[in-house]
Amino acid sequence: MARPRIKDVARHAGVSEKTVSNVINDYVHVSDRTRRAVREAIDHLGYRVNLAGRHLRTGRSGVIALVVPELDVPYFAELARHVIRAAEQCSLTVLVHQSGGDRGHELAALSGFGSDFVDGIILSPLALTSDDLRERAGAPPTVLLEEGADHVAIDNEQAAREATEHLIALGRRNILVIGGRDAPGLGTAEARTRGYRAALSAAGIAYDAAALLPVAAFRMPDGADAVTRALRDGARPDALLCLNDQLALGALRALYEHGVRVPEDVAVMGFDDVEGGRYSVPTLSTVAPDKAAVATSAVHLLRHRIDEANRPPDGGDVTAAVPLSPQDRVVAHRLVLRESTEGARH
User: What is the pTM of this model?
Assistant: First the structure.
């Protein structure tokens, strides 16, 4: 069976080929009714955009890259689903790449993988420095899911402060931070640690650097190992602030194996609101970022950057040619309180 062409979509939807092209390229001057008819025709016929032809005609491939450290971490898997959904609404295809948190891989992503096939990049970096992010001459438009020039994220410092304040309100005073990093920097762990310290200070609780338990990675075994080491070293926490849910789920297992009751003896708070935390025993209290909003905001910001990069320097509206200033987009978060903190108060 012959591959459906744009004229087949036009005939099925009862519109012109130009209208189909406008819908595919997400031009705004198309009615919702027409756009819906064209998309239904595309789905019905199984039409796929010829990316090579589009690239030759427009200089764009219609492909963006989503680069995350690890694809099997539930937060990034859930985020990827939202990014793909948001990109589809903009007629963009998403290439998903795993960096492993390796600086070389992140630099390769930052440069567009050495080709012009990718129009733009959404990147969650772990190893890049501020200098790496500044030295990007000729690189594709990039939006970070982290602090930086153009970035989209929750207010990690404020979120951690709220989570810590909740634990303090439960009467907890000896709060360990699994994955904490007390250092200057733009990273997520650093921001969340600052929020933890701010909450302690506001409550008049002395900060002890020994309360930060570093981890090699932000996975369940690392959370379990950190808690096991702390308990064997004589730590007697009454709460854990875990800087992601994977660490928290590992911590729950370690506490169970050592006969520590949750939340009666130790309250546990996570970050990210991944699905596994809703089914753990006990269920996990967590900071829930609006993942759909993170994805949608990142895709829309990247699309603006791509449009800006491809705008003719001497054409169109003069005001439209003014570059966007660096965007710092903060999306909502909320505390989701479940069984791992909602037990007996001290």
Answer: 0.79
